C-alpha cells in the first residue's frame, strides 16, 4: 500500500504530537514531513518555556524520539510563505496539518500602549529563551523583540535601565516574566540561557516588579507549583494587600469547587504571614487591579490603574481609580493570538484556523487535504500535554477521510525534497539538529553548565554544518 505523505507545518509539541499520532497507528502507512521555519525543532518547548524550568524543557527529549522514526523527516529552516507557498506544499503532499501555533499577542487596548517600554510577553520570552528571530546578526550586543534598522531593539536597554516593571496578567507566562525580571543572575547561571542574555540580566537594575490581575486571587490561571516558586527566590520580599484575601461569595464558591484555586489562595494567604524584611528587591501582587493607561511622553513613565469588581453577571467592571504605579517597563501577558498566513483560512475574530474536528473549513466547505492542530486550532489554552489529545483528534479526522477514500495517497516525500532543491533550499535535517545540540552542550560545558543556547541564525547554521 502506498504511504500517505503528510506535511506538518510546525515542529513544536502540537506538530510533533500529530506526527506521533500518525505514525503510532499501523492501519494506514504514512510518511511525515515535519517542517519548521526555525533551524531547530521543538517550538515553544525550546523558545517559550522559561529556562529556569529544565524539567519542562526536557520534554523535547521525548519529542525528539518521534523525529527519529524512519517514517518521519525533519525539514528545518524552511518557511511556508517564504520558501514555499501553501499551494506548492499541497501540490507535492497528500495532506497538510497546520500546527504553527499562536505567535502574536493580545493587546491591552489602553492609551499609551505603544510607548517605548511597553512590550508583549512573547517578545520578552523569545529574547530570554534565545530565539534567533529576535537576536539580530550583529557583532555587538543582541536585543530582543523586533530589531530596529540598525540591528538592535529595545529589550536589552529596557532590562538594563528599568527599576520598576509592571507585568499585566494572571497566568504562568506572567509568573515566568516576573521571575526572570526579579531574580539575580546567579540564580539563572545554571540554565541554558544564551550567554548574551545572561550578560544583560547580570547588569539589570530592576528592584520592583508589580503583577496586575484584573480579578481576585481565586481567579488566577497559575499552576500552584509555579506560584510557589516566587516565595523561593532569594532576598526578595513579597508584597500583597490583605484585603484582597477577604474573599467575596463568588470567590469562596470558586475555591470550594476548584482545587487549584484553593491551593493558590492558600499559598498566597501564607505569604501574608511572612515578614517584610526590607529586601532590596520586591514582587508586588495587585489583585482586582487593571491598567487604564500607560503614562509617558516618549517612553513609559508609569501605569494608571483602577480597582475592579464583578457585576451581577460576573463581568469585570471598574470600581474606583487608584494611584498610578511608577514604571519604566510594562509587559502585557494577557494571552497569545494566532496570526494569518497567506493561503490558509483564518478567522480574524477568534485568531484561529476555522475547522471541525481539526478538518480545515474553507469558504466552499471542508478542504479535501488540510487539517489543523494546536493553538492555531483551539486558541492558546491548556498545557503542553493538551496538544497530544488535540493532535489525536485531528489525526483521527484525517485517517477517517482516508478510510472513506476522500483522501488518497498520490505523492512521494521525495517530491517535497526535490521542490526545495529546485529552489536552492537545503533544509536542516535531524542529523543537523544533533550537531547543533552537540555544539550547545559543548558550549555549556565550557561554562560549567549542561548546555548554552545558541541564539543567532548564523551560529546555528554553522553548528549544523560542523562535522565535528
From TrEMBL:
Required co-factors: FAD
Protein name: ferredoxin--NADP(+) reductase
E.C. number(s) listed in UniProt: 1.18.1.2
The protein's enzyme class: oxidoreductase
Domain FAD/NAD(P)-binding: 6-201
Classification via SUPFAM superfamilies: Nucleotide-binding domain (SSF51971)
Keyword Zinc: no
UniProt-annotated binding residues for NADP(+): 214-215, 226, 382
GO molecular function annotations of the record: ferredoxin-NADP+ reductase activity
Reactions accelerated catalytically: 2 reduced [2Fe-2S]-[ferredoxin] + NADP(+) + H(+) = 2 oxidized [2Fe-2S]-[ferredoxin] + NADPH
Organism domain of life: Bacteria
Record keywords, A-Z: FAD, Flavoprotein, NADP, Oxidoreductase
Keyword NADP carried by entry: yes
Pfam families per record: Pyr_redox_2 (PF07992)
Region (Disordered): 132-154
InterPro entries the record matches: FAD/NAD-bd_sf, FAD/NAD-binding_dom, Ferredox_Rdtase, Ferredox_Rdtase_adrenod
Amino acid at each position: 500500500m502506498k504511504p500517505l505523505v503528510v506535511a506538518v507545518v510546525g515542529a513544536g509539541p502540537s506538530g510533533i504530537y500529530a506526527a506521533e499520532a500518525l505514525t503510532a497507528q499501523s492501519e494506514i502507512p504514512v510518511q511525515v514531513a515535519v517542517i519548521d521555519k526555525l533551524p531547530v525543532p521543538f517550538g515553544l518547548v525550546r523558545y517559550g518555556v522559561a529556562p529556569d524550568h529544565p524539567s519542562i524543557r526536557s520534554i523535547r527529549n521525548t519529542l525528539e524520539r518521534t523525529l527519529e522514526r524512519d517514517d518521519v523527516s525533519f525539514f528545518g529552516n524552511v518557511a511556508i510563505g517564504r520558501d514555499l507557498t501553501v499551494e506548492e506544499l499541497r501540490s507535492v503532499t497528500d495532506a497538510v496539518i497546520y500546527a504553527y501555533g499562536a505567535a502574536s499577542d493580545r493587546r491591552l487596548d489602553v492609551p499609551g500602549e505603544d510607548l517605548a517600554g511597553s512590550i508583549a510577553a512573547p517578545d520578552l520570552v523569545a529574547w530570554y529563551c534565545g530565539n534567533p528571530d529576535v537576536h539580530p546578526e550583529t557583532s555587538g550586543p543582541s536585543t530582543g523583540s523586533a530589531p530596529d534598522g540598525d540591528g538592535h531593539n529595545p529589550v536589552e536597554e529596557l532590562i538594563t535601565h528599568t527599576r520598576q516593571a509592571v507585568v499585566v496578567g494572571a497566568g504562568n507566562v506572567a509568573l515566568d516574566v516576573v521571575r526572570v525580571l526579579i531574580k539575580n543572575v546567579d540564580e539563572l547561571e545554571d540554565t541554558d540561557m544564551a550567554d548574551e542574555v545572561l550578560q544583560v540580566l547580570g547588569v539589570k537594575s530592576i528592584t520592583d516588579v508589580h503583577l496586575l490581575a484584573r480579578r481576585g486571587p481565586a481567579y488566577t490561571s497559575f499552576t500552584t507549583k509555579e506560584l510557589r516558586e516566587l516565595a523561593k527566590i532569594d532576598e526578595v520580599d513579597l508584597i500583597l494587600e490583605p484585603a484582597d484575601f477577604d474573599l467575596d461569595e463568588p470567590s469562596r464558591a470558586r475555591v470550594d469547587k476548584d482545587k487549584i484555586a484553593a491551593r493558590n489562595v492558600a499559598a498566597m494567604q501564607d505569604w501574608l504571614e511572612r515578614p517584610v524584611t526590607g529586601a532590596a528587591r520586591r514582587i508586588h501582587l495587585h489583585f482586582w487591579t487593571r491598567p487604564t493607561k500607560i503614562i509617558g511622553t516618549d517612553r513609559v513613565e508609569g501605569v494608571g490603574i483602577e480597582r475592579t469588581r464583578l457585576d451581577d453577571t460576573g463581568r469585570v467592571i471598574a470600581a474606583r481609580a487608584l494611584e498610578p504605579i511608577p514604571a519604566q517597563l510594562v509587559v502585557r501577558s494577557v494571552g497569545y493570538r494566532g496570526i494569518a498566513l497567506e493561503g490558509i483560512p483564518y478567522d480574524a475574530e477568534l485568531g484561529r484556523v476555522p475547522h471541525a474536528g481539526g478538518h480545515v473549513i474553507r469558504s466552499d466547505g471542508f478542504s479535501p487535504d488540510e487539517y489543523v492542530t494546536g493553538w492555531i486550532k483551539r486558541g492558546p489554552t491548556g498545557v503542553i500535554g493538551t496538544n497530544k489529545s488535540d493532535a489525536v483528534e485531528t489525526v483521527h479526522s484525517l485517517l477517517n477521510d482516508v478510510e472513506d477514500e476522500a483522501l488518497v495517497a498520490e505523492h512521494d516525500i521525495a517530491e517535497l525534497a526535490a521542490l526545495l532543491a529546485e529552489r536552492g533550499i537545503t533544509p536542516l535535517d535531524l542529523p543537523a539538529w544533533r550537531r547543533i545540540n552537540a555544539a550547545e552542550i559543548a558550549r555549556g560545558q565550557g561554562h560549567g553548565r549542561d548546555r548554552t543556547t545558541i541564539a543567532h541564525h548564523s551560529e546555528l547554521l554553522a553548528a549544523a554544518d560542523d562535522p565535528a
